[in-house]
């Protein structure tokens, strides 16, 4: 006897009962506009949802080795039962795979599978899958369509939205990439149940960032509902994913190619990237961004921009979610300053720091001195 595939192992999300909470966020970018659908049970409905992209188009599912095991096989079975033949192209899970060698071998596999200019890539997985599948789609036969099916919280609230694709070089992360918008994003929150706590925290750090840069309402919602967020209560989870996507869509649609406003999405990332790189990436991105947000908030407070209570609220919220608010001694001040100077956000020799003048309001400063950074880092060390 075969059982119907169900996506979301926790049983909290019965798609038949709560499908009505699907929400749509539009990303208005002229002819590159697209919708993000958020809610539980989307993957179970995918064959029908993809109808509008047919007929006659070949779908190819790109995923990593972990997601292949616990999601992709079920999804392929679902496609088969709907009369669709969707081949799977898999790569080994992990950031180490995010390189040109993987792109080339996936492209060759696609050719062997008979992919053509009308084919559509379905990117099922976290940010690594989305970044690579998007990159592959943007260069395969000079560009084909792709649909994001993000399965980590970070991918649902951040990497699947905005159209940045990328692969790493030995010299650094995301040094090769394109701007390529997906045709659609289906963020099925039901699949987050299997996510390890550390991966969940990576995504939550970005959600807190959105609250700090754009929406005190979102920030307060996280303060009031932190328990439901940690427990992935479906309505709360759908709401925070929707609000995060709305904020990112709003920012990206005003500045698609990071000429100005989009830089505010880097709040916490200037010092955060330095911490991440200095630890040789043993400190996960979300934890490094958490420390980086504390540094940016302290610089803002020391400049008299941000009230001390706001810094305390940020610290308390990060701690609620088990995110670190203190920089470990193994990451030295010198490393941080050196790595900040090498960051992509340095333009004309000046470090661009995203600061806050209230929870939900930002400004970009291009005159933050090394002394200010070191003072804030020292305060964050506690
Ligand atoms: N394009 C952008 O705008 C953008 C923005 C932020 C981050 N990124 C990129 O995103 C990447 C990080 O994304 P990530 O944190 O999702 O990493 P990831 O894709 O490596 O996923 C993390 C781990 O979770 C596993 N996983 C995925 N879905 C799961 C699920 N539902 N249950 C259990 N495990 C699951 C994956 O197999 C992997 O082992 C980085 O490469 C970063 O550069 C891109
Ligand atoms: Zn980030």
Biggest sheet statistics: 7 strands, mixed
Helix percent reads 40-55%
Strand order of the largest sheet: 1-2-9-6-5-3-4
Alpha-carbon distance between the two ends? 59 Å
**N-to-C SSE string, H for helix and E for strand:** HEEHEHEHEHEHEEEHHHHHHHHEEEEH
CATH architecture assignment name of the largest domain: Up-down Bundle
What class, by secondary structure content? Answer: alpha/beta
CATH class of the largest domain: Mainly Alpha
Choose one word for the global shape: globular
Approximate strand percentage: 15-25%
Low-confidence stretches: none
The tally of beta strands, per DSSP, is 13
Instruction: Provide mean pLDDT, rounded.
Output: 92
Classify the oligomer: single chain
Bound molecules: nicotinamide-adenine-dinucleotide, zinc ion
Query: For the CA atoms, what is the radius of gyration?
Result: 21 Å
CATH homolog superfamily of the largest domain = Dehydroquinate synthase-like - alpha domain
Number of domains: 2
């Amino acid at each position: 006897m075969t059982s119907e595939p169900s996506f979301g192992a926790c049983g909290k999300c019965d798609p038949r009962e709560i499908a009505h909470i699907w929400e749509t966020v539009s990303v208005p970018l002229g002819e590159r506009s697209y919708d993000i659908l958020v809610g539980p049970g989307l993957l179970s409905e995918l064959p029908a949802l993809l109808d509008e992209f047919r007929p006659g188009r070949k779908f190819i599912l790109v995923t990593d080795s972990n997601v292949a095991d616990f999601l992709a096989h079920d999804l392929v079975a679902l496609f088969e039962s709907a009369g669709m033949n969707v081949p799977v192209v898999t790569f080994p899970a992990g950031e180490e795979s995010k390189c040109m060698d993987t792109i080339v071998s996936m492209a060759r596999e696609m050719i062997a599978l008979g992919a053509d200019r009308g084919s559509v890539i379905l990117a099922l997985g976290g940010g690594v899958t989305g970044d690579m599948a998007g990159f592959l789609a943007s260069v395969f036969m000079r560009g084909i369509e792709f649909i994001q099916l993000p399965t980590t919280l970070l991918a649902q609230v951040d990497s699947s939205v905005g159209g940045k694709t990328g692969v790493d070089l030995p010299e650094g992360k995301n040094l090769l990439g394109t701007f390529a918008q997906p045709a659609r994003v289906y963020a099925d929150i039901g699949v987050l149940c299997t996510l390890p706590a550390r991966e969940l925290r990576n995504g939550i750090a970005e959600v807190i960032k959105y609250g700090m840069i754009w929406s005190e309402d979102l920030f307060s919602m996280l303060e009031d509902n932190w328990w439901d967020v940690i427990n992935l209560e479906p309505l709360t989870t759908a709401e925070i994913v929707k609000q995060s996507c709305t904020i990112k869509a709003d920012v990206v649609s005003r500045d698609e190619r990071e000429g100005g406003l989009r830089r505010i999405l880097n709040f916490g990332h200037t010092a955060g990237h330095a911490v991440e790189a200095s630890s040789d990436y043993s400190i996960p991105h979300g934890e490094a961004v958490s420390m980086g947000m504390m540094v940016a908030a302290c610089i803002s407070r020391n400049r008299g921009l941000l009230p001390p209570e706001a810094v305390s609220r940020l610290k308390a919220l990060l701690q609620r979610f088990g995110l670190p608010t203190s920089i470990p001694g193994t990451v030295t001040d010198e490393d941080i300053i050196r790595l900040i100077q090498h960051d992509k956000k340095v333009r004309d020799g000046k470090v661009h720091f995203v600061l806050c003048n209230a929870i939900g309001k930002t400004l970009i400063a291009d005159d933050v001195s090394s002394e200010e950074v070191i003072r804030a880092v020292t305060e964050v060390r506690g």
